[in-house]
Fold each of these.
Amino acid sequence: MSTSKNNQYTLRIDAMDYYRVVARVLIYDARNQLVSSGGDRWPFISGLDQGLYTVRVHLNGAAVDKVIVMDKDQTCLIADEKASIPAGIIHLVSPKQYSSALLSDCYGSSHEYYTAPAVEWSQKNTAHGNNTVGIGTSTGSSLFVFLRFASKDKYISLQKCYPNKFFSDFEIVDEHGDTVCAFRPQAVEVDEQHGWAAYSADLPHGLYYLMYHGPEPRQVPIYVFRNWHTQFFLTLGQAPLFGTTRIFVSPYRAFDPYEKTLKYIDILLDKLQNQDYTLNEELISMTANGKFESPMLGLICSYIYLKGTSIKNDDLFRAIVQNMENVILSNNPGSPDIRALKIITAKHFSNPEFDATGISGAPMFRIGFEAILDASVHQPDLIPENSINDFVSENLCSDSPFTTFKPIPFQQRNILRDDIVLENLILDEPKDFGWDVKQFELPPDYVTFSFKTNIPGKDRFDVKIKSFLGDSILGKINSLNTAPSRNSWIKNSIVGMINTDEGITINDISTNLNISGNTVTRILSEWKGEEKGEKPKKDNPFKSNNEPPLMNDL
């Protein structure tokens, strides 16, 4: 025992495994006054006078307290409840964590009756009767979707909230809106006793969307990277809890609940949601050294660091971003997240040079979409008019670290899609699929966005709203598109700005609202067309009773 003249003792606190990265320690005296804050320094050492103290361990919004008597030097270790702790060391049990992802025993939400089927069905296709696009192929990549409730008891208590089957309002579509899998018993595996549903299939790499068609519909982009396996988890309550969305990318098809990388990702996603753009040095070092070559860990750490104000590790993250694009996620140039990451990298390094051509799909991470949206104010071609990102701009939801939005209708245009089919549904060697390419030549009324803007010329964003809309429409501006305006912050804001200043330009609105000028022109064109009695053609295939197309039907 070592003491000082005033009976001060040493308290040493350390943490096991990933708790060194994500846990935070606070120490309170007997009067509940904060006397020491550990931050992210490990081991955390503090000199304390003799007496009673409370050690509080914070982890991802949860906390647990441990009362310690300081009458000698003490050593504490933060670890799981079931961890084996050496004699003489005080066990600081970590707070129970809750996640849609089923991450080992330390998570209070990881029930065995969910974990076991998630592991099982992540490894094999779920569809029966070959009625799901991609089934029976060997693409080198796959998509696994697992829906579940917080617990079996919670599921039983909430069954009345779902007049139909709890999974029946979900489907997977490709980037053009074609149904890949409607969640029906013949296409997904379901356990109606415990409350879970799983979809798993080999799929060509590319962008897909999870569609929910319930009372508050939602659309979520999911990217399947070439030679990687994407795993998606979502918890259901009275409705789907999209804030609980977890997406992982693994080199192995089988979901591993004990993979340490997933715990880091789970915690970092909450940092993203809370707009906490700070990173522990140990995590930075681990990511840089390639201890875990996880695309999602690399993407999240890069997003967080580059969004923050620190410049200490600039060279390191410049290399990490290059490694993400050229090594870990090589041969995936169409990924919107890679495009978004390069944009946020350019902004962090005050570099105006980046690819400003149009981005055809929405990135998985909301921080990525917001980076694209922010850059589109000065580079409007990033968000082409009538592209999905144009519509996401006014339909984005903010309750998840991932990009989620009110569903976007895919409207018709008269083009053949042979080139799109070859690019997105057939890999480098079509013979690996055993498919006839001609099966995928779809009819010319293929569903996509179609409403056209009539504002001409490269200087269209300098056009004054008054001269474009005309006095007749300006006089009706408060009644045009009334219902959508009530549900769109962008449309509401545009109406307010026009009412305040009829001389305002498209560029003015774009800058003030931090949205692409293309989005402004599309909205104005809709209003102009509505005043003339025109309406964009809306043929929305996203109906809850849609059955997935058979391969022969394509």
Note: Residues 112-258 form one domain.
Amino acid sequence: MANLSKTRTVFAFTSPRTIEKIIPEIQILVGLFSGREWNTNTQIAFFHELFNSEFYEGSKMPDNVSLAARDRITRAPKALGFVDLKPKIALTEVGKKLLSGKRTSEIIAKQLFKFQLPSPYHKIPSDRSFNVKPYLELLRLVKELGNISKMEIAIFFIQMNHHNKFESVVAAIKKFRNDIQKHKGNRKAFIDDVFTKQILKIYSEEIKGNDLKTRESGEATPTKFVNTKKSNHIDYADAFIRYLRATQFISFDKKTYRMIVAPSRIAEVDYALKNVDRKAKTYNTEADYKKYLFNPDSLLLLTDNKKYLEKQLAKLSVKFAATASVESLKDLLEATEKKIISDVIVGTEVALKNYKEFDDIVDVFGKIQQKKVPDPPLYLEWNTWRAIIMINYAKKVRGNFVLDLDGVPLNTAPGNMPDIESEYDGFKMIIEVTMSSGNKQYEMEGEPVPRHFGNLQRSSDVPVYCLFVAPKISEGALAHFFNLNRMNTKAYGGKTRIVPMSLSQFVSFITIAKDKGFKNSKVLKFYLDSIIQKNLSLDDESIWYQQIHDSIPFWVS
């Protein structure tokens, strides 16, 4: 049971930040450890299996392995009812639904809207007056306000520990917006000042009692305490957005990047807000709570209504049998929506030809660097895919990220495949992107990038290249790729061909393609070969990287 004795606000699951990443982790847990006790030995064994999996991000084993395992399993997987850990490790009925791969967004929505504070899993002192379903109320807030920013969630929504505070939170955000419009000075400083005042109000008792230690820091000063709490609130806001996004009930405005109700899901959102009870239920025992949490049908959405499904399919001119079950109608609607998304991708590709969206692509890259988009890693994948499509002359370009029905990026590529794959006459190229920097970049990308290259190279009858793009290329990653390009590595199909570029260099790269009329994929292959040849002949990675930088203005001759 989570110890929430000091909790004053709602919280989100921050590990992993993207809920879909729990799926392969649950598969490892139940595939190898079902029927065993969830104890220290099992936790350590589980994490070692996770660490050695192809989708785990990172190359350093944590100091406290059992704690890291609990962090992965007892938060989202257990709290949302996908696994049961007592008396033995077991996959629940909703867990089976999740692992089936069918209608993932629907099952996630149901479990998020069941999540409540307090609960038998999350005991909170009664004097804190918690009574809230956070994900449901955040959805309601988006609907009520029309849109919301991450900072508004961090400052105001995180305080909503009871559903009866909804109207006051709405009023506070509206006042905040009005005050910003009237403010003549520095906008960023104004927002930070508002944030600080709210933190001081929320944690006034801790500050007054000099109870300033936090789990994240041993430093116990008022300034450090306030800054830590701000950081926590922002992390929670980010996680709330990512998890709620997985329901596909919400999306992002394509200009402001503020969270909005997904236009294609308005009816479903209205139904959920009207029919799902806002109040946290009281359970006599943990077993009673589990019966509710583990039951796929204990909370129903509009997509469980047969007449609604039939209406949607009829609207899309899809034929179905009058005797079809709800499940078969759901399958048919899901398949139809996938076809719609495929058509959206094709339409996007057509619109990108001939540099029609060049200015927008460059602008989005700028916003990504400034972290002014809601999910920078996801938007970096999506926008890099747009850029590769735009410079044209590939036979095929496939982004392995996922879009929603409204054509807005939904999920990054799974960890076991490249971010983007492109095929040209006589060669192939994968593009790997990351927002990580410093040592973290090497830890997260040093193994997956060459592995993805090797997987494709071993099965390809033409040369494969890899373009690695990050806001800044770290020294560790640069040295690693420089050396892999010079060595025969059986696991990677021989010598790799990985070319690193910073995001600013990549923007220059596509700008040169536009300005010089790039129209022959052989030119791209010649350029990539020249970079790899320099890699083999130059003394060190710094000289090589400078050569890459110097060559970009002339890559299209």
Note: The longest strand covers residues 427-433.
Amino acid sequence: MKLIIAEKPSVAAAIAAALGVTEKKNGYIEGNGYLISWCIGHLIKLSEAAVYGEQYRKWSYDALPILPEKWQYSVSKGKEKQLSVLKELMHRTDVSKVINACDAGREGELIFRFVYEMAGCTKPMKRLWISSMEDAAIREGFAALKDGADYEALYASALCRAKADWLIGINATRLFSCLYHHTLNVGRVQTPTLKMLVDRDAAITGFRKEPYYHVCLSLDSAEAISGKVKENAEAEKIKEACEKSQAVCTSITREKKTLAPPKLFDLTTLQQEANKIYGYTAKQTLDLAQALYEKRLLTYPRTDSNFLTNDMGKTAEKIVMLLCGKLPFMQGEALTPDISRLLNSKKVSDHHAIIPTMELAKTDTDTLPSSEKNILFLVAVRLLMAAASPHIYEAVTAVFSCAGYEFTAKGKTVLSEGWKRLEKRFRASLKKKPDAEDDEVVLELTDFSEGQRFDPPPVKVTEHETKPPKPHTEATLLSAMEHTGNEDTDEDAERRGLGTPATRAAVIEKLVASGFVQRKGKQLVPTKNGYNLIAVLPETLTSPKLTSEWENALLQIAKGKADPGEFLSGIEDMTITLIKAYPFLSDDDRFREERKVIGKCPRCGADVCEGKKNYHCTDKNCGFSMWKNDRFFLERKVVFSEKIAADLLKSGKSKVKKLYSPKTGKTYDGTVLLADTGGKYVNYKVTIERDKELS
């Protein structure tokens, strides 16, 4: 028997179908000489800090740094049962070897190895390395299994990454949370990402608009425009001079230009495009692509490659032909694909680019949820555009002289639409049309000739303003995350930029959930706490250089050219240095939540604010507090709202509707009175406004 362990149940099911394994058991599938089970993602994780000692259970400044001597591992919550299944399967006497079928990459290796080692398994290990869940691809992968030992160095790099992130994340988060008395999540990827958002927002906030002017000549239905003129008076002076002078064409430049088709999608570019066209968040796009992958309609989505391997030419050609007949917006469109430019094995790391599969041939796309269909069609049209001919146009530039000043008119004539024609057809099929791209504007320029003269032309002055940078959207932030720090990262590194294609969406979601970033439509904007966090952190934690340095080191470890122990020793030294740099707790209260004042204290006159459980006086020496769960309101089945509290503080009374009477079981309208006697608890009374109770 051979035991196959996949990363998810859906992948295990696809493998089982391809290998003819059909007998479903409790937590695995059996048959045809195989046992197939799964991990449900990360079954095992590095243990929380509290496992290393009671002193780490509470977040304490004095307990830092936390540097485990012997690393501990824990089962992820709610996944204990599946781990038990895997342990039992690994130790079955009839199991001769274990096949790692987790995702082909650094993290997939880590997921499997954690389970393999925690189970105490010593049986021979093989590795499945595939990018598509189609039956043929799975069977080909099993026909060419790798030796598990070939991936020891990859596992070592994955383990180093996990431990390094734990050390910096746990220690930095606890350090700055204790220093500033507020939960401040700090992470190697998360924090530099926040810094990019803060920098962009600061640039927008600090931007000062400056006016500028253009002088425009109307020449045979074309418009020739001057350069930027800073002062209106100067622009008017040019206008007056031109109104009295002839204009002369001094030069004509014609340049044939070729716009190459776009590359195939990797996950990040798919997320960017889905955000631009449909407004989907990065996480939504990843989830949708994953669902389509599990339905075998897309290849593996968590990829950072824009190419297919050299042996995929015939497959890609078949899929292109399928799409031409399958996609509604391709009806009547002829396409002669050029597949060769899509193939480059040297630029494929773990997985090739995302493309549809031949499973689409037997799928009715109208049965898919509209969101999944959107992503499927987006990936499909990208493949078609990538295989189409280039977009060719002629750019024409005409320069004119008038009254000693220079003016320029530009035009663009399309010679061959190429892939742009497919893009237009696709966009025309969308219910909600995305914003037009700048390069979509096509101007036919009059056929001017050098030396051509014009009588004094109509002239006008147009006013403009310099524009600030645009706020980041998920599309632009994903691009920034992908490319930042790349100049410092080895081009062969497994991960470049901040995060991985698979984790960037989660990083953005965590920033939002932590209250450091907020969504405003498509825009991502840092909050006050986001600004403050970046302000208090050292540059080592806010710069992407740390990730670049790590990835370069992890690449060498994965190649077997660097020592994992030395890498982790360096991370520990960095952690110790970070803690030593902050020898004292801060009395800075910049992260203190702004409390809304709802009234004045009837005892001392200080402000009264709302807390989670009460309305309390802000003077610590005053004991006034109105508890939200006061028995008086609970018995009368009334929520002690902010309005009631504000009324009581202002006038000592509040009109309340539908007060419940425990004696009669009926409700009535009444006035609640504040009857404070200065004791530990505040008292209340109620007067009935009507003689007749409301039923």
Note: The chain has five domains: 2-160, 162-204+471-580, 211-258+392-415+436-465, 267-381, 597-688.
